Amino acid sequence: MNKIDKAREILKKYNQNHIKNIDEKLADQILKIDFEQLQELYEQANSKTLESDIDNIEPVKAINPNKISKEEIENYIKIGEENVRAGKFAVAIMAGGQGTRLGHNGPKGTFTLTLNLEQKSLFQIIIEKLQTAQKQYNIKLPCYIMTSPENNDDTVKFFEKNNYFGYQKEYIKFFEQGEQPLLDKDGKVLIGEDGLIKLASDGNGGIFCSMAKNGIIDDMKKKSIEWVFIGSVDNLLVKYVDTLLLGIAISQNVKIATKTIIKNSPYEKVGVLCKRNGKVKVIEYTEIPKKMRFAVDECGEMIYGESHIMCNLFNIQAIEKASTKELQYHIAVKKSKYMNEDGEIIEPTEENCYKFEKFIFDSFCLFDKIAILRGKREEDFAPIKNESGPDSPETAKKMYEEYIKRNV
């Protein structure tokens, strides 16, 4: 049986017979897709499983630097610095997104804004931070950048065009994250304008499998890396070399550490940390129930207010373990144009499909204990998510410039 016939057989088995014209390229794509898993994800999308997932929830305790001594903080930092100076530390940047929501045509990391009268891309800001750390600790700091199939070529070309912003080319490695097909509300895969099945990134939680698949974990082990800070491309205040967080993780003998900030209101669109059945997890803002959202303690502080801000630290052993596990998928309802059976391009006016994503924080439950450090919004969290309003270039720029002024 040739591959086109094999592809037709698979489509028939999984009720995807709306796909009629199959060439070799489409057949190759079909043969690589796990339709069994897709069917299970579709069934999840149409079931009510959220309530059972939030049973047995309790608050987490974070280390608040304001409530420990200066000596303790200095000791943690010293321990973290020793690891960095020994060349056992690396940074991974999640940069698979496009700048569409910002009105930017290109990878999000190439988005440019004016800081202190100088135009810089998000990538340049990050690389300059890493260069500062290299000079401070007299090291070569490996940097791994997770792109997507959609933006990888443009990202690599951007770095080449800018001569890697003066960074050592051999210490920057790019790797692509995985993808999953989009399904319509009847469970059918969407077909794009190119006649192929429409794919979307499988979320930041796919980073572990992508690292394994692309040889990144092997490269880290060859370089004797023990700890990797994984951060997002769009937070201007991320401390990629966070020696306090690193020192706490090493001192507490954990494999994962994360930094939080307190939510500014019950309505802020950030996931919150909690414990479920004794293990740390994050509940996304779209999933948190009302009774948890508004719960406060005797001092009026939100009980579930520790926000996950994508500042995560992983031991290499944790990355290896997570790369062998199938993290749960979260389901988002999206709007996406597609080609119908008659070859017409349809522009939907409302949400028409399911997107399946893994989240990096779902790896937390693979471990009995993680370290949590409470940061400060004005020092750790200036995200660029929206073109205007909250979490926009304007608000992030203001926070960044104020931070620089305070720390000059």
Features:
single chain, 408 residues, alpha+beta, Spore Coat Polysaccharide Biosynthesis Protein SpsA, Chain A, seven-stranded mixed β-sheet, three-stranded antiparallel β-sheet, 19 strands, 32% helix, globular
Description:
This protein is 32% helix and 21% strand. It has 408 residues and is an alpha+beta fold. The chain has a single domain (33-406), classed as Alpha-Beta Complex (Spore Coat Polysaccharide Biosynthesis Protein SpsA, Chain A), CATH 3.90.550.10. A 7-stranded mixed beta sheet has the order 6-5-2-10-14-11-19, sandwiched between helices. The chain has a 3-stranded antiparallel beta sheet with strand order 1-12-13, with no helix packed on it. It has a 3-stranded antiparallel beta sheet with strand order 8-18-15, with helices on one face. A hairpin with a 5-residue loop joins strand 16 and strand 17 (345-346).
